[in-house]
Amino acid sequence: MTRLVRTCFGILCLLALSACVTYPDISQSRSPCRMEPGGWCAFVRQAAVEVYPYAIAATNAYTGDDDVYVDVGPVLEPLERLDIAKEDADVGFGYELFAQYAPLSEGDPDRKPIARILAYRGTDFDGFTDIFYGTLRSTQINIALLYFEAERARAEFADDIPWIVTGHSLGGALATEVSIRYPEVRAYMFNTSPFYAGDGMANDVRRTVFNERGEVLRRFSRNEPAPAAEVFTLNCRPQSSTFTKHKIRLLADCIVWIAAYGDSEAGAVVDANAVPKPKVECGEGDKPHPGTEFRPVVPCVHQARRARGEAPIERQIEPRRASR
Question: What is the pLDDT, as a whole number, of residue 321?
Answer without folding.
Answer: 33
